[in-house]
Design goal:
binds protoporphyrin IX containing FE, globular, Globin-like, 8 helices, about 150 residues
Length: about 150
């Protein structure tokens, strides 16, 4: 009887442990599916170059940020996306609310920057599933970034 209960608990413990392992090996993170650090770095480089000159975004807020270190900004945005997509936790910048407070960013400007991101993902031929997931991550920052609801 004792031997049987040992066998039963061994089998149960195997069943309990087998399931998560199987999932962990089959479901890759969005970070991996996008192509990891090099692919995300390339996408952010192109995206920031595009959106920085889009008047509908007004990234430099009428010149208030004209001295901005764009190379550093690209590194920060890359680290933010790497972390948000399940890559190594390396973002050490400010949270989105603190980083954009007082910029009076409108919903329309946010829509324009989201459009630039979508167009960049299309340019890099990112498949629909991964594009949709990344766009959802970007959309989740809207409540912290937009200060003017027009
Ligand atoms: C119209 C929309 C946006 C505008 C105009 C904008 C503008 C800016 C500016 C000017 C900075 C530099 C702030 C500073 O150095 O003090 C900044 C920082 C940053 N932005 Fe945005 N941004 C927008 C949307 C977004 C979105 C959608 C994301 C991410 C999904 C994002 C991620 C970041 C990050 C990670 C930083 C760096 C923060 C840090 O280094 O502490 N921004 N943004």
């Amino acid at each position: 009887m004792k031997a049987l209960s040992i066998v039963v608990s061994l089998l149960l413990s195997l069943a309990v442990h087998a399931e998560p392992t199987k999932h962990a090996t089959t479901k890759k993170s969005l970070f991996e599916r996008l192509g990891g650090q090099p692919a995300i770095t390339a996408v952010v480089d192109s995206f920031v170059n595009t959106t920085a000159v889009n008047p509908k975004v007004n990234f430099f807020r009428d010149g208030k940020y004209k001295g901005l270190d764009v190379v550093h900004l690209k590194k920060q945005v890359t680290a933010f996306i790497v972390q948000a997509t399940g890559g190594p936790s390396e973002y050490k910048g400010r949270d989105m609310k603190t980083a954009h407070v007082g910029m009076k960013i409108t919903a329309a400007e946010f829509g324009a920057i989201a459009g630039d991101l979508a167009a960049t993902l299309d340019k890099f031929k990112v498949p629909k599933a991964e594009k949709d997931e990344l766009m959802a991550i970007a959309a989740s920052t809207q409540k912290d970034i937009v200060e003017v609801a027009k």
